[in-house]
Specification:
single chain, mainly alpha, two-stranded antiparallel ribbon
């Protein structure tokens, strides 16, 4: 049994090593399209850096942004940075069990969509509470990010679509009902340091 575990870890490391070799081309498009499964295996093998997650998530985030960018004043680059920071925060560097069913941004149960029950931390009047919630499952990472943009079409997220820089986008997200953590925006800014 131990032998198979060691082999699995070594295979995962090899996959991760090859996955990280691709760099953006001059056109900004990746030479290699990382599959969701490669990303999951790389994250399972070790804790990924912010830069690695940004590179690995480039394709699914960019594909979603291409579909919805006309609805936002913020640049695609700033949207990509904000969404990557959200994914890092919500999944603990892609280590959370929610990643297995492609739930990257903490979207609660959506009607007529598969879901799973998971413990989470919520804040009520500044008080930290541990409870279980139903979270939506998605068909792929791109599907998860598409649904984030669909969620942000609601009127309560109107300000997100009207800001024109990253700082204002994070502040608008912090002012919205998206997260109950009073330090959500601060945490996103801290993740964005060094990007």
């Amino acid at each position: 049994m131990k032998k198979y575990y060691i082999i699995a870890v070594l295979v995962g490391l090899l996959i991760a090593m090859f996955a990280f070799k691709s760099e953006p081309t001059s056109s900004g498009v990746k030479d290699k399209n990382y599959t969701d499964e490669v990303i999951k295996k790389a994250a399972y093998t070790r804790t990924l850096t912010k830069k690695e997650i940004y590179q690995l998530m480039y394709r699914p985030i960019t594909a979603s942004i291409e579909k919805y960018k006309s609805e936002y004043k913020c640049s695609p680059l700033e949207l990509r940075r904000a969404i990557t920071a959200m994914i890092i925060l919500e999944t603990g560097h892609l280590k959370a069990q929610s990643v297995a069913i492609n739930s990257l941004t903490g979207i609660k149960k959506i009607k007529n969509r598969p879901s799973f029950r998971m413990p989470t931390t919520e804040y009520y009047l500044g008080i930290k509470v541990y409870e279980d919630h139903e979270f939506s499952a998605f068909f792929s990472f791109e599907d998860a990010i598409d649904n984030l943009f669909i969620l942000w079409r609601k009127d309560i997220y109107k300000e997100l679509r009207e800001v024109d820089n990253l700082e204002e986008l994070i502040e608008a997200l912090d002012d919205s009902p998206y997260a109950t953590d009073p330090n959500h925006g601060e945490k996103l800014f801290k993740i964005l340091e060094g990007f």
